[in-house]
Design a protein that fits this description.
nine-stranded mixed beta sheet; globular; 7 helices; 242 residues
């Protein structure tokens, strides 16, 4: 298998989770691993030695770097003034040719999510993982056009079909357009704004991939962490048949 580029956005301060001595991606789960460690374990489970990690760091960057010494790192020095659009831009600017899978550094998820993206990776097609079972008011939501490709992607989408879960794939052929649009984004824009601009102005086609039967929980608040741990327990129990 050729190398698979994996970007993890881990630069933010994560203030909504409350005061903690570590950056949010290093928040421990109940099995002793951090959120970041379970992400990297999931990637290795699916892609094995082909995985190549780029982690975007900022807040308490040395702690993250020490936790993942095998990764490459991109530094968002403006982490306290910028949002995920600029962190993703740092990573893509430092990536090699070809597609990139990226994820927010606070997602606890079923590794099967990555397997759902595998056909799109193989075909060099852009995609986002979505959950159609829930549409949270504060979450990034989406709609599609007549061809089933993403047409809107933001927290402001009305009558949305579902919500994005924070795990995405940009095709190699679409990456230059996304980089250009991320550069145009305002500092506080989420990376989804860059995707919207690339769709609107560059004709980039992004397919929503339904993972509603799996679990993927973005940990913003303490209750999200509890929900993520419960979801992972259910996954592990089902896997072991207990």
């Amino acid at each position: 298998m050729p190398s698979v580029q994996i970007v993890i956005l881990a630069a933010g301060m994560g203030t909504r989770l409350g005061a903690r001595p570590w950056p949010k991606p290093l928040t421990p789960l109940d099995d002793g691993r951090s959120i970041l460690a379970q992400q990297m374990d999931n990637v290795r489970e699916v892609f094995g030695d082909a995985a190549r990690f780029i982690i975007v760091v900022g807040f308490k960057n040395e702690m993250v770097m020490e936790a993942a010494p095998e990764a490459l790192f991109a530094y968002n020095d403006a982490y306290s003034e910028t949002n995920t659009s600029k962190s993703l831009l740092r990573a893509l600017d430092n990536s090699a040719d070809g597609p990139v899978i990226w994820m927010n550094g606070d997602v606890v998820f079923d590794p099967e999510v990555l397997r759902r993206l595998q056909p799109f990776l193989d075909d060099d097609r852009s995609a986002i993982a979505v959950n159609t079972a829930v549409v949270g008011e504060e979450e990034v939501k989406y709609n599609v056009d007549a061809d089933g490709a993403v047409s809107e992607l933001s927290k402001q989408v009305v009558d949305a079909l579902g919500e994005a879960v924070g795990i995405n794939l940009i095709a190699g052929r679409d990456k230059a357009a996304l980089i250009r649009r991320l550069d145009e984004c305002a500092d506080q824009d989420y990376f989804e704004r860059g995707i919207e601009l690339a769709i609107d102005h560059d004709g980039v086609k992004v397919t929503p991939v339904d993972i509603s039967d799996l679990f993927a929980v973005e940990v913003d608040f303490a209750e999200d962490l509890e929900r993520a741990i419960e979801a992972r327990h259910a996954y592990e129990s089902g896997r072991s048949g207990t």
